[in-house]
User: Fold these one by one.
Assistant:
Number 1:
Amino acid sequence: MLRMDKALKSADPLLARSCTEAREILNEETFKHMIAVERKRTERSREPFLLMLLEPGNRQVSEKNGKSLDNMLYVLLQSIRETDVIGWYKDQTVVGVIFTGLASDDKNAILSAILSRVSNALRDKLTPDQFNQVSISFHFFPDDWDHDTPGRPSNLTLYPDLLSSDRGKYSLLRIKQVIDFVGCSLMLILCSPLFLVIALAIKASSKGPVLFRQQRIGQYGQSFTFLKFRSMHIDNDESVHKEYATRLIAGVEDSKQSNSNGEPIFKLTNDTRVTRVGKFLRRTSLDELPQLVNVLKGNMSLVGPRPALPYEVAAYQTWHRRRILQVKPGITGLWQVTGRSSVKFDEMVRLDLRYAMSWSPLLDIQILMRTPHAVIWGTGAY
C-alpha cells in the first residue's frame, strides 16, 4: 500500500503551514519534464507511478474567491509525501502530483487511498461550492495501449513533453518538412521510369497487385497505410514473421546465420514467401520506393525509425515504445546506415532513440548521403 508521511499531519498547525509553504511547486515546463523522467525511471525499475491532476473548475468561482486555488494547493502540500512531486500541469489552471514508490500492485487500492485522503482534506478546507467544482483525475504509468487502435497510447496525458518538444523545435521541424517535400518530389520525378519497369516486372513474375499495402504504426502510435512494391506471393501466411519478430523483440531469438563478414544476421532469410523479383527488390531496397508517397502524405519522413507492425508493438517492452513516439518513422535512418540486420532488436531501438534525441536537419542530410552506399552494397538487406 502507498505509505504517506505522518509527520506533517501530526505537527503543530503553524509548523505545518511553514513546512508546506517551503515546498516548491514546479512550473509547467519543469513538471512536464519530471513526468518524462519518471517514465524513463519506470521503464528501468518497472515500478509504476501515478499522476494525479486537479482542476479548480469554474473560473468564476476562483474570481469570486481568490483564495480557493491557494487553499487547494495548501491542502495538497499537506496531503502528499515529501518524495512526491507537485507542479503545474497547465500553468495556474491544472495542478499535478506525481506519486512514486507505490508499494502495491493493486491500482484500485492505491486510487482509493489517495482519493479518500485528498478529497477529505479538500472538503475540510474548501467551501461546498468550491469543492464541487474541483475535478480530479488519475493516470497510471505504464499505461495500457489502446486495443481498438493497435499501438496507440490510450492515455496521452502521460506524454505532455512530446508535444512540448515538437513546439520547441518548430523551426527545425519546418526545415525537415521542406527537405522531405523537395527530396520526395525530385525522387518521384527522377524515378518515374524505374517505377514503370518495376511494376511490369512484378506483374510478369507473379499474380497479384503491384503495390503491397499494410497497416503500420507511426508517430504517437497513429496507424497508417504503408506502401511498398510487392515482393511476396499473395495470400501468404504472416504467422511465420509474427512468431520470429516476437521472439526477436523478447531477446530469445539467436542468429543462426551470418553474412560474408561473419556478422550475425537478425532477420528472416531464405523466406519462401518472397518471389524471384522480390528478392532483387529487397536486396537493392527498391521495394521501399513507394514510401515516398507516405512521406508526401505526412505519415513518414525521409529519415527516421522504421514504422512498426501492430503485432510487433504488442510485443514491445515499455522502453521500446519510445521509438514510435518521439519522431516520425522514415524510409532510411541511423539503424539502416549503421547496422541494419546485423544488430539485435534492443540495439536497433537504442539507435532509433539516439537519433530521436539528437536529430537535426544536418544529421538527416548526413544519413541521406550515407544511404546510397548502404543500398548499393546491400548491407543487411535480405
Note: The first strand starts at residue 49 and ends at 55.
Number 2:
Amino acid sequence: MTNWHERWMSQQTGWHRAVYNDLLLKHWPTVQAAESSNVLVPLCGKSLDMEWLAQQGHTVTGLELVSRPIEDFFEERGLTPQQQEIGKLVRYSSAPFVMIQGDLFDVQPSLVQADAWYDRAAMVALPSAMREAYVDQLRALTMPGAVGLLITFSYPQHEMGGPPFSLPDEEVAALFSQHFELQCLEQITLDDERDRGFSSSYSSVYKLIRR
C-alpha cells in the first residue's frame, strides 16, 4: 500500500487518463448493461470513466486502495461525500457514486452486489499469483447474470517487471471460463508501445457475463 500511496502523492500516475477511455465508449453499448445498473469499478483511482458511466444512468461503486484519489475525485466534482468506517474500510458516498477505500479483498459481498463491472486497469495492476483470488472476489461482488467489460494489456513479461503486468488472452480464458461467459470484442496491436521497449504488445477487449 505504501508504494501506491507514494505514487499518488508524488503524482507518478501514468495510468490515469484525462479523457474517457475510447474502448469504453466504443464497446460499453455491446455490454448491454441496464441503465439502472450499479457498475463496479475495481482499483478505480479517480478515473474519469466513472463519470462517463454515471452519465449513462448508472450508479457507480469504485474500489480503491488509497484515499487520495477518492478525495480528489469528489473534490474535483464539487461533491462532499458522507464517510463511514466499516472495519478496515472507509465508504465514501455522494450519489451516484460510492467509493470504498481499502484492500479490495477485504470488501464483503454484503457491501457490494453489482449488476455490471468495468476493468481497464485492475487485473493488469496485479501479478499473476493474485489474479485467481481477484476473479473469485469479482464473482463474489457481482450478481448472477452481471455483465462486464475487461480491457487487457499483453506483452512479453520478461521485457518489463510491471505494473502494468502482462495479461495474455490465454490467461483470461483460464481464469474466467469456469464461471463466466467470454466474448472477445476486439484485439488491437499496440505499435506505439514499441517506444517502451516491447518487441510486441496488444490489448484485448472482452465482454463477460457472470454465470
Note: The CA atoms of residues 145 and 210 lie 5 Å apart.
Number 3:
Amino acid sequence: MTLDIEKSLRIERITSTDRIPFDLLLLADETMEAIERYVNDSDIYVAKQHNSCNPVAVFVFQLLNPVELEIKNIAVAENFQGNGVGSWLIKKIWQIAMQYGRAIIWVGTPDCASREISFYEKNGFKKAGMKKNFFIDNYPDPIFDNGVQLTDMVMLKMEI
C-alpha cells in the first residue's frame, strides 16, 4: 500500500471523553498495567484517515519539565507500517514539542531492539543513556523478544 501521508492522515488529540486506543498502545507496550502507569497523566494523540473515525496510529508523551518531554508510546497499526507513518509521527511530535516550548524529546526502547533503535536514530535521536534492569523492575513477568529476555532500556534523545 502506497500512502500519501499528509493527504491521507490527520492528527487528533484524545480528550477525556474519547476512547483510548489500547489495541494500538499494546503494539508498543507489553501489558495493560504498564500502559495504565502513564496513560492518565500523558497527552495522547491518534492519527486517523480523513475518511475514518478509527485510529491507525497513536503516540503518547509526558511533559517532564519546562524543557523536556518523553515519548511513552508510539505505535502504527500493522497494515500501515512500512509506509513512513512512524517517521511522520516523529515529525508531528517534534512540532508539538516546539509548540510546548520543549527543547528535548526522550524515548526509550529495549537495548536489544536494533530495528527500533535504528528507526529512532534515522529520525534524529541519539543514544543518551541506559535504564538498567528497567524491564525486570517494571514488569511482573519476564518479557522476551525473539527469544531474548528484555532487561535494560536504552534512552534516546533528540534536541530541537
Note: Helices lie at 5-8, 22-28, 32-38, 85-99, 114-122, 134-138.
